[in-house]
Write a structure and sequence with these properties.
Strand content: over 45%
Oligomer: single chain
CATH class: Mainly Beta
Number of helices: 2
Distance between the termini: 56 Å
Number of domains: 1
Radius of gyration: 21 Å
CATH superfamily: monomeric porin ompg
């Protein structure tokens, strides 16, 4: 009973801390996009390369903590002709008594604005899909709380991600609107907002050292959840080292909340310190295979657990189009080459 009590307290804390911002919002935005996986969060990046791509990611938060959040994703994308591409991604995200599963399919269209070996491309992508929100109340006993006892155990809703991207030589800019359609998951009876829209903007540039097998890529990701005007930024630095049959790469990402979160639906309103975390990562592309590891550590003064977050990404490129010669574009641009 004591174990159940602590689980319930933890669950209520999570619900209270996110009641304003919604506990379920689709695929969580972590740093897995940095492990050769931009399509996971940006639909316009489907088919950006001429190889079909398969990426699988597993993430475990707060290692050693019972009922800690965990995430599994599977993403596939491929060109179907010169300008069109398709993709699909699936995820399952568990967080204590709550979980959500998602399945999306993608269509992307790429318009090359320059001829020859010049990279100048405008791309559009759309990803319709389904989200299943679940709440497991089977272990709750003698709990009197409307947040826990009301609502549905499981709910499936339709949603949509749309986006566009622009690549010119070694510069890229990508924008995506996630959860374009309103829905509330199983919070439908709790007076919570049905607006789960999240604007993502990513920009970066590749600096290639002349006659050296080394390249440097600074980038930034900005996220804003429109219903509560809550935002964060990822400041990223990534290095590439060319190998005879691939690339060795690694870097670090620093995520910082651009505002503090206020909780007003409690007896005494409080302000939580904004999120701050570091994520070093390392990976290798060898022939057509890819593997990467990411570790995330929070740097807030107060955290739920000092345990880090571990993430593994594996992938494969296949069905590469032979019509395009290696080095077609006069840029380093690993996102499209």
């Amino acid at each position: 009973m004591k174990t159940h009590y602590h689980k319930i307290v933890f669950f209520v804390f999570l619900i209270s801390a996110t009641a304003k911002s919604i506990a379920q919002e689709g695929l969580p935005i972590y740093t897995d996009y940095l492990t050769d996986n931009y399509y996971l969060i940006h639909p316009s990046m489907a088919g950006a390369k001429d190889c079909s791509q398969l990426r699988i990611t597993g993430r475990q938060n707060w290692s050693g903590v019972d009922e800690a959040p965990g995430l599994f994703t599977l993403a596939y994308n491929s060109k179907i002709n010169t300008n069109s591409a398709i993709g699909a991604n699936f995820f399952t995200d568990s967080n204590g008594f709550t979980s959500q599963n998602g399945a999306y399919i993608t269509y992307a269209h790429h318009i090359d604005l320059a001829k020859g070996n010049q990279l100048k491309r405008l791309s559009f992508g759309i990803s319709p899909g389904f989200l299943q929100y679940s709440l497991d109340r089977s272990t709750f006993t003698n709990v009197v709380d409307p947040i826990i006892n009301d609502g549905q155990n499981s709910r499936i809703e339709f949603n949509l991600d749309i986006g566009m991207s622009y690549h010119v030589k070694d510069f890229y800019l990508i924008g995506t609107l996630k959860n374009a359609i309103e829905n509330r998951g199983f919070n439908i009876n709790q007076g919570s907002s049905s607006n789960l829209r999240n604007v993502l903007l990513t920009a970066g540039y590749i600096y290639k050292l002349n006659d050296k097998p080394i390249a440097f890529e600074p980038s930034v990701l900005y996220s804003n959840r429109l219903s509560i005007d809550q935002s964060f930024a990822d400041l990223n630095a990534k290095m590439y080292y060319d190998l005879p049959k691939g690339k060795l790469w690694g870097g670090i990402s620093y995520r910082v909340a651009l505002d503090n979160q206020e909780i007003n639906n409690v007896a005494t309103p409080i302000t939580l310190e904004g999120l701050k975390q570091w994520s070093p990562f390392v990976g290798v592309n060898f022939n057509k295979l890819m593997v990467a590891y990411t570790y995330t550590a929070q740097s807030n003064s107060e955290v739920f657990s000092n345990a880090g977050f571990h993430q593994i990404t594996i992938g494969a490129n296949f069905n590469c189009k032979q019509r395009r010669k290696k080095g077609r574009f006069n840029c380093y641009c690993p996102a499209v080459k």
